Every structure is written in C-alpha cells, then in structure tokens.
Here is the input.
Amino acid sequence: MLLSLGVPGTGLFGVMDDVVRFAHLIAIAIGFGTVVSTDFLSVWRADKPLTAEYLRAVEAAHFVIVPALVVAWITGICLIGMLTGFDPAEFTTKLWVKLAVVTQLVVTACLIKRFVMPILRLNEGHTLMEVPLGDKLVMAFCAGMSMAGWGSAILLGGLAMAKLVPGWLLIAAIVGLHIAVVNVALWSAVSLHDRVRVRAQRVRLAEIRGY
Here is the structure.
C-alpha cells in the first residue's frame, strides 16, 4: 500500500518518507542523549549515596529510553517497507546491521530492567563505589552495550558515509565500537573497585596504627 503512494522521494511518498526519517532520527537522538546524560550522572555521583531521588531519575530515564526505542523500531520498520517492500533480496548490509543494533538495544533494555534496576534499589543508601564487583561489572556491561548501541544507531542513521563503506568494513566498525566501549566500561568498573579496596586497606592500616 505504501509503495502505491508514488515514486520514492516524490509527492506524498516523499513527504511520508521525510516524516518517518525525521521521527526515526529524533527517537535515536533522544535515546542516545538520555543514555549519555544518565551514565555521566552515575559516574559523577559514584562516591555519593544512592538516594530515592537518584533512583527515580534513573527510572524516569529508562521510561524515556524505552519509548524512544519503540519509536525507532516502528519508524525503522516503516522505512524498510518504503525502501525495500520487505523483500529480503533488497536488504543491504547497512540495513542488516541496523536491525542487529536495534535488536541489541532491545535485549540490553531488558537486561537493565531485569538486573541493573534491582541492583540499584538493593544498594539504596550506599554509593556505587561500595557495590560488589560482580554487580559493578553487570552494570558496566549493560551501560557499555547501551552506549555503543545508541552511538552506532546515530552513526548509521546520521552519516551519509555509512552508505559508501563496504559491508565488511561497516560490520567491523560497529562490532569494534561495541568491543571498545564495553571494555572501557568494564575497565572503569574494575578500576573503581580497586580504588575502593585500596582506600579500605589504608583506613584499616591507619586504624591498626592508631590503635
């Protein structure tokens, strides 16, 4: 039905195409911006107790990210229909990569809901620095996957160069981005935990000497 509205890029079809693309990019921008701001907030207050206000802010961010992801999915499906008529033979490597990235974001959102939010609630009143290492790694992994996924969506949707890059190179770049971001997140979690451990050892040593 959509394909019968006119030649792509002209008339009503062209208007619909522009509207859907705009909504798609806006949803991705909102999701990415919310993820970045929430991650920076968490890092900034890593040495401060997890308050009820902070937990509400994180939950509010999650309630923004999920609808943005839903809109990105819906508009993405519409774009696929407009551009390919849902014919797999017309799917490009870039399109398959986009589908993989959005699927990854859906899985990550579920993991955050299932694991990260309970960890935060369980540690209310404590700092992120005091959270056990295993929980730190879970949160860091989810944060890294989310950041890499939304960043990849921005790159794939906003860079015209992505259309010109060979398929294998595009896949390597997106996978490489995920590996890099997740490893930085995990390293940061381990580094933070080591800092807490060293600080605790110094406190105990000072207490022993003082005693």
The helical segments are 11-44, 52-84, 93-122, 133-158, 167-210.
